[in-house]
């Protein structure tokens, strides 16, 4: 009677697993593009996020807009630019136009010709037909080049000032009257000078 040691049984089991794995790998094939032509990506199955950051993708003479770069690449397209493809094939520099913007408050200064205006975010500026020329609020200047003065600019627009609902309290003062405002813009719109960040004390 032949006796097989437990060691040989364990080794035989491991060898069988390795052989099965080797057979599975041998069934896979890798395709390499060795052609001398231009870039021609091959579609690959790929899991992509649902994130919407549009890109313009190109393959041969075809251009198509994709929700994001992953979607373009997984469809076999090369990303040629950010934003949606335009009629001339170039990506749209303002992919957010015509779409709803977020309520994110990241102020930017926008320009449309000589007109300057502060917007809550870049999407809002572009949606209104303005080019973003800087981050933060626009700095209006007096004709003599002195400090910014919002009241002069607001008078030119009928005295009305539009403020966001952002809550970043400030303490404002007008004469002897001291009051807390939701933000600096609201204080300024009421004619108050901001004396300190945060709520007024005592």
Describe this structure in words.
This is Kazal-like domain-containing protein. Keywords: Signal. Pfam families: Kazal_1 (PF00050), Kazal_2 (PF07648). It comes from Shinella fusca. This protein is α+β, with helices and mostly antiparallel strands and 202 residues long. Among the domains are: 43 residues, no CATH class; 44 residues, Wheat Germ Agglutinin (Isolectin 2), domain 1; 46 residues, Wheat Germ Agglutinin (Isolectin 2), domain 1. The protein is 23% helix and 22% strand. It has 5 helices and 9 strands, in the order H-E-E-H-E-E-E-H-E-H-E-E-H-E. It has a 3-stranded antiparallel beta sheet. It has a 3-stranded antiparallel beta sheet with strand order 5-4-6. Strand 4 and strand 5 form a beta hairpin. The chain is elongated, with a radius of gyration of 31 Å. It starts with 5 loop residues before the first helix and ends in a 5-residue tail after the last strand.
Shape: elongated
Would you identify the regions where 5 or more consecutive residues have pLDDT less than 50?
28-37, 142-158
Roughly how much helix do the residues carry, as a percent range? 10-25%
Number of helices: 5
What is the C-alpha radius of gyration, as a whole number of Å? 31 Å
| CATH class type of the domain at 156-201 | Alpha Beta
H-E string: HEEHEEEHEHEEHE
Would you count the extended β strands for me?
9
Adjacency order of strands in the biggest sheet: 2-1-3
Oligomer: single chain
Looking at the overall shape, the CATH architecture of the domain at 156-201 is 2-Layer Sandwich
CATH fold-level topology of the domain at 156-201: Wheat Germ Agglutinin (Isolectin 2), domain 1
Mean pLDDT, as a whole number? 73
| Global structural class | alpha+beta
Q: Separation of termini?
A: 100 Å
Strand content: 15-25%
Note the main sheet: 3 strands, antiparallel
């Amino acid at each position: 009677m032949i006796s097989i040691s437990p060691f040989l049984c364990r080794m035989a089991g491991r060898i069988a697993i390795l052989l099965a794995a080797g057979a599975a790998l041998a069934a896979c094939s890798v395709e390499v593009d060795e052609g001398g032509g231009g870039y021609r990506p091959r579609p690959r199955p790929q899991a992509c996020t649902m994130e919407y950051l549009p890109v313009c993708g190109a393959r041969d003479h075809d251009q198509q807009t994709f929700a994001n770069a992953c979607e373009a690449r997984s469809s076999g397209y090369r990303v040629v630019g950010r934003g949606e493809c335009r009629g001339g094939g170039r990506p749209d520099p303002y992919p957010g136009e015509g779409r709803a913007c977020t309520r994110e408050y990241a102020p930017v200064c926008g320009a449309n010709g000589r007109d300057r205006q502060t917007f809550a975010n870049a999407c809002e500026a572009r949606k209104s037909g303005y080019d973003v020329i800087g981050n933060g609020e626009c700095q209006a200047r007096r004709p003599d080049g002195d400090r910014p003065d919002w009241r002069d600019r607001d008078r030119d627009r009928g005295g009305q000032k539009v403020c966001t609902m952002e809550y970043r309290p400030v303490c404002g003062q007008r004469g002897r009257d001291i009051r807390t405002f939701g933000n600096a813009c609201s204080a300024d719109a009421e004619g108050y000078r901001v004396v300190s960040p945060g709520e007024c004390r005592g």
